[in-house]
Amino acid sequence: MRLSALGETGLIERLAKNFKAGGAIIKGIGDDCAVIRISKKKFLLVTIDMLVEDIDFRLKDATAYQIGWKSLACGLSDIASMGGVAKYAVISLGLPRRLSVEFVDELYRGIKALARKFDVEIVGGDTNSSKALVMDVAVLGFVEPEKLKLRSSAKPGDIICITGSLGGSYKSKRHLTFTPRLKEARCLVNNFRINSMIDISDGLSTDLNHITRESDVGACIYEELIPVSKDAKGINAALNEGEDFELLFTMPLREARRFAGKDLCANSVKITQIGEILDKAAGVKMIGRGGKVRDLKPKGFSHF
Hints:
CATH architecture of the largest domain: Alpha-Beta Complex
Radius of gyration: 19 Å
Low-confidence stretches: none
Helix content: 25-40%
Mean pLDDT: 92
CATH topology of the largest domain: Phosphoribosyl-aminoimidazole Synthetase, Chain A, domain 2
Number of domains: 2
């Protein structure tokens, strides 16, 4: 079987069968971060993201500073989606010989700028030669047990919410310059009952399906409620383009009513309620502007 037939999600599920989580492991393969118990009051969060030249960025379209920024931002976004606080990062580089020392300096200038913004310490890494530029960044953080958020905890009746707007991230180059929603996530978990959360990296259609599959539920969203970015080419871009790095989360109806109209952390980040979690039998649907109901299949980004 070719990888293209199995797909990225299928490959991850296949590999996960070889490893059983036990002991101190709260969550292993299958979420944005691994979760490890280190004390009664603290869980360790571990995530790693690999960015590869001509797959995740192109040198003709991105500066070294932007590539460095994004390489750390992806991991910080994973920590945010678990409700945690990022603390440390380890950076490994695959460097083509054609690159200049000044280019590498700029990579690290971008990394350090974002690290300072969120008080993250760079504590190590590795370097190697490669034909294409590769950035492999591991981020470690912490979360209190009661504030941990997983993909697998959505409940029927939950209201589906997202931060910001979706689509157009490539056109605007927002995929290279986005600020991870760490502060917003902590505000949410500190003040509201959030049942499940994920960051939108592969596209709303794919990441909502991640939540429904892991939580064993269905969902319905409304096209007219989805906040489409001014840079997006229509609803399909907002659903499937990916690289938005906004938060997708669910909360009980009572909490959603309490939440409605509040300015999250007084920083003007828009929160939009776009649908509802349903029983599994309902599947995953989208109701169009004309009332037409269609299946919302995962058509976002996949590596294979």
